[in-house]
Amino acid sequence: MINLTRCLIPSFLSFVLLLLAGCAGRQAGGRPTSLYLQLVDGLHVTGTPVDVDSESFRLRVGGAVERPLSLSLAQLREMPAVRADITLVCPGFFTDRGVWTGVPVRDLLALAGVRPGADRVVFTSLSQGYTSALSLADLERDGVLVAYEFDGKPFPVVHGYPLRLTAKDHEGNVWVKWLGAIQVSE
């Protein structure tokens, strides 16, 4: 007969220690940050903040498109915006709800001209190259935005300034902070 206590307790304890170590959070250079998973300005803090110069920043839209884009923050803010009440869910950790303002990803892709045969879009963060991907069908739904405001205010650096992806009805790991690139693939 297998002794489940001997098998499960060490594994469980290892899991708890890894989880606790991860919750301590890390800044650039490996320094711990006390803000990790804390609520700041209505949102929980995750990820490694990136300082971005808003004057030189460009969101790049490329890959399988007819017209690659390089958009400044000012250009994005001049585009027709959507304000949407969306809930960000990180299962088992937190739920953040508020009004997000930004440009629908489908509008940016229409401007770039998605090539026939493309079926997937990869979103890349300026923070340590973090990526997530959604199908083109997912991007047709409401609530998938390149957001630049939360509850009427620009994001602070800890929440992804200047841009982040919102993906309504998708878990938080799909939402990309410090969004720097959108790549359409076939």
Sum this structure up briefly:
With 186 residues, the protein is an alpha+beta fold. Helix content is 20%, strand content 34%. Strand 1 and strand 2 form a beta hairpin.
Structure commentary:
By secondary structure, this protein is α+β, with helices and mostly antiparallel strands. The protein folds into 2 domains: 1-34, no CATH class; 47-185, Alpha-Beta Complex (Sulfite Oxidase, Chain A, domain 2), CATH 3.90.420. 20% of the residues lie in helices and 34% in strands. The protein has helices at 4-23, 73-78, 105-112, 136-139; strands spanning 39-40, 43-44, 59-63, 69-71, 82-90, 94-104, 120-125, 131-135, 144-150, 153-154, 164-167, 179-185. The strands form 3 sheets. It has a 5-stranded mixed β-sheet with strand order 4-3-12-7-8. The termini are far apart. Residues 1-33 have low confidence and may be disordered.
Give the secondary structure arrangement, pairings included.
Layout (H helix, E strand, L loop, with lengths): L3 H20 L15 E2 L2 E2 L14 E5 L5 E3 L1 H6 L3 E9 L3 E11 H8 L7 E6 L5 E5 H4 L4 E7 L2 E2 L9 E4 L11 E7 L1
List the main descriptive attributes of the protein structure presented here.
five-stranded mixed β-sheet, 20% helix, disordered N terminus, single chain, Sulfite Oxidase, Chain A, domain 2, alpha+beta, globular, 186 residues, 12 strands
Q: Remind me, CATH topology of the largest domain?
A: Sulfite Oxidase, Chain A, domain 2
Averaged pLDDT:
82
β-strand amount: 25-35%
Rounded to the nearest angstrom, the radius of gyration is 19 Å
Secondary-structure element order, as H and E? HEEEEHEEHEEHEEEE
Provide the helix percentage: 10-25%
Q: Provide a count of the helices.
A: 4
Total strand count, please? 12
- Count of domains: 2
